[in-house]
C-alpha cells in the first residue's frame, strides 16, 4: 500500500517535471527565435519585444521550480485534490487544469494553517519529501477523524518535516521554508501590504526568513504594482545580503533590490570607517537641523558691498539688496538650488532698477527717461554679465550634496563643541553614517532636474505609443499563464488583458534597458512599492529619514530585536522610531519560537540579557539536542582555537569562530583554511568573524572567543548563532553570565 502511494506520487512528480521541461523549452525557444529579429522592421521589433518580455519572466520562475518543485498535497473532504508547489503549473489542455498550485495561492493556505481542531475543509494533508526529482518520503496527517482510508504514511509526528529541516547541516546560504511555514509565520507573510508592520522576535524566530517570504508573497499578490515599483530589502552588511540572497530567486522572484543602508545614496560608496561615537552623533535627528542651518549659512550677505564694473555703469550689490533678494527667494519655500533662480532674478531686477534710475534720471526731476524697451535691454545685459553671475554664485552658490556635507564635516557647526569635535573629518572617505547626511543634503538642496524630467516624459510618451502597437499585436498571439493566481477561476491571459499601454510602456522600458530594481538602485528619488528592513533596531534616526523618503506610501515591513541592538546610534523603541512618520498607525507582531538555537544553548545565552533585566524572557526553543555548551580556559588562544576547530570540523556543516575584532587577524592566521576578513565566504567550512559580522547568520557550530571583551548585545548575538554546538575559549575570566560553563566532557565549572 505504502509503496504504491510513493509510486503514484513519483509518477506525478515525473509528469510535473516533464511539463516544466516542456514549458521551459517553449519559453526558451520563443526567446531564442525572437531575439535575432531586429533591423529596421518595426513590426518585427514589436513582436520580438512582446515575446521576450512575456517569456523571460517565465523562464526565471521555471528555473526556480527545478528544486523541490512540489512538496505538498491537500485532499479536501469535498473531493478537491491539489498538489502544492514552489510555482504554479497547469496542464497543456483546453481547460488549463492546474497541476500544481503556487504556495502563495489562497487555496494553498490550509497546507500551513489547518489543524485537527480547524481542518479548513481538509481530509488529509500530505508532505512530500524529495531529493532532486525523486520522492523519498511521504508524511500524511489525517484531519478528518471520520476518514477511514489509510495509506501507511500516517502517524508520523506532524513536526517531523520541520524538525528535519531545522536539524539539517547548514550550507552558508539561507534556504526557503515554503514546506514548513508555521501558522504564526503565515499570518505575517500574508498580512495586508498597506501600512507599516513591525515584526519583533528573539534570535532564530524566523524574522528574516519570514520577511523574505513576505516579499515573495507580496510580489505574487500585487504583481503589477510591485514589479513596477520594486521591493527594497535592507540588511545590515554585504555578507548578510549574500547569505539571504538566494531565497527570493529560489522562489522565482527577482524584482527585489537588496542593499545595506550604506548603499542607499547612488554614486557614493561608503568604505570609510570612524568611531562609534562619531557614527552615533551623525545618526541623530539633530543633524538634519544642523545641516538645514548650514545650508542657510551658505545664503550669505556681502560685506563689504560687491561693486561690479558693468559696461553701462557701476553696479552695487550691497547687503540690503542681497537681504531683500534672499527674503524673496526663501519665501518661495523651495530647496536651496531650486530657490536659487528666485534669488538671481531678484538681484538682476534690483541691479537693473539701480542702473535705470541712474541712466534715465531726468535732470529736471521728471519721470525716468528710459522706456520699457531700454530697460529690458539693460536687464538683459546684466543677466548675461559673468561678473553678476559670479556675485550671485558667491551669495547663493549652487551646491551638490557631496560638496555640502564635505564642507560641513570639515568644520561642523550648529552642534555642541564636543559633538563637532567628534565628527570633524580631517581625512578619509565617506562612511556609512555619512549616507543619510548626503541624502538629507540632497533633499535640502533639491535636484534641479527639470530638463531631465521633460526629456524623460517625452521618451515615455513615445514608449506609450509604441506599447499601444505592442498590445494590438499581442492580442492575436495569446500565451499561457503559468501560475494559479486566481486559482480555479484563473483564465488564460495575454498581455492585453493584464495591462494597459501605459503600464506596458513601463514594462518595455524594463525589458529594453534595466529591471525596475536596477533602475531603483540608481535613482535616489525612487519610491519603492514596499520596503523590508532587517535588523531594523540598528538604524539611526537619520537613516530612518532616508528610508521613509524612499517609501512615501509607507508600505513597509520592519524586522528586528531590540535586545540585539549593537549600534549606539540604533534608536530605542518602535514608538520613537515610527511616531514621526506614522503616528500610532502601525502594527506590531511578535514571533515567540526559536527555530535555530537548541534549548541548551538558548538557556545559556539568555543569562546575558537577564543580568541587566531579570525579567528577560527569551524565545522558546523548539528543539533540544542534548549537547551542552562548553568553555575552556587557555594560555594559548590561537592554539586552543585551532585545536577546537580541528576537533569540531569532523562534524557536518559550517563552523564559525566569533571573536572580538582585534583578535580576528591572529586567529585567521592560525586557521589557514578559514575564510575571514571584511567579506568572508560563508559557504566555506570554517569562518572567522567578529560579532557585528555574525548578525543575522547561523552555523552548525560556533566557537566564541574571549567573551569578556564583548559588549552584552554582541555576546548575546554571538551565543545565539549555533544550530547544534557551542564552545567558548578564553584567557580572561568568563563574564558572570557564562560562569557556570564547564570543560567539554566534564561537569566541573571552568572558573
Ligand atoms: N518555519 C520554518 N521552517 C523551517 N525553518 C525555519 C522556519 N522558521 C525559521 N526557520 C529557520 O530558523 C532559522 C532562523 O531564522 P531567521 O534567521 O529568519 O531568524 P531571525 O529571527 O532573523 O534570527 P536573528 O534575529 O537571530 O538573526 C533559519 O535557519 C530559518 O530557516
TrEMBL record:
GO molecular function, one term: helicase activity
Binding site for ATP: 201-208
Signal peptide positions (record): none
Keyword terms of this UniProt record: ATP-binding, Helicase, Hydrolase, Nucleotide-binding
Protein species of origin: Streptomyces kronopolitis
Gene3D superfamilies per the UniProt record, alphabetical: P-loop containing nucleotide triphosphate hydrolases (3.40.50.300)
Domain UvrD-like helicase ATP-binding residues, every copy: 180-598
Name this protein carries in UniProt: DNA helicase
PROSITE patterns linked: UVRD_HELICASE_ATP_BIND (PS51198)
Transmembrane segments: none
Origin superkingdom: Bacteria
